[in-house]
Amino acid sequence: MNTYQNPYMSFDGITPEEYTFLQQATASLTENQARTFMSFYASKRRNPQDIMFATLAGFLGVSGVQRFMTDQIGMGILYFFTAGFCFIGTIVDLINYKTIANDYNRQMAYESFNIAKMSN
């Protein structure tokens, strides 16, 4: 019986690209550093489905929430005041929500990796 559980599988909505990236990024970390990485990354990571639901909220009059969630404040303000570029930008974001989430999560993984490397 294998009692080892992969810690990355505990993330909701993890994509194969994100899983592969996380495995490669944490391969050189010690066990303590990997725990530090996981705690920081888990707190900063965004679920792709959450990004999709925030994008759908743009059709209800609250455009740009997905951009605020991914720390793109300027784009969020622009989406908000232009109704998601007259819904065209919102439709594009709805199609590309996984890419938006993966790009943000990759950036947060880099930050978490650097914090973990400095911890020991």
Task: Tell me about this structure.
- This protein is mainly alpha-helical.
- The longest helix has 23 residues, at 97-119.
- Helices cover 68% and strands 0% of the residues.
- The radius of gyration is 16 Å and the shape is elongated.
- The mean pLDDT is 91.
- The chain starts with 15 loop residues before the first helix and ends with a helix.
- The chain crosses the membrane at residues 51-70, 76-97.
- Keywords: Membrane, Transmembrane, Transmembrane helix.
- This is TM2 domain-containing protein.
- It is found in: Membrane.
Question: In short, what is this structure?
Answer:
Helix content is 68%, strand content 0%. The two termini are 33 Å apart. The chain has helices at residues 16-25, 31-44, 48-56, 65-69, 73-81, 83-86, 88-95, 97-119.
SSE layout:
Layout lengths: L15 H10 L5 H14 L3 H9 L8 H5 L3 H9 L1 H4 L1 H8 L1 H23 L1
Helix pairs in contact: 1-8, 2-8, 3-8
Which labels suit this protein?
single chain, mainly alpha, 8 helices, transmembrane, membrane, TM2 domain-containing protein, TM2
Q: Report on the biggest sheet.
A: none
Weakly predicted, low-confidence segments: none
Number of helices: 8
What is the multimeric organization of the chains shown? Answer: single chain
Secondary structure class reads: mainly alpha
- Extended strand count: 0
Provide the helix percentage.
55-70%
What general form does the structure show? elongated
Q: What is the arithmetic mean of pLDDT? A: 91
Strand-residue proportion: under 5%
Distance, first to last CA: 33 Å
Subcellular location: Membrane
Keywords: Membrane, Transmembrane, Transmembrane helix
Domain TM2: 55-95
Protein name: TM2 domain-containing protein
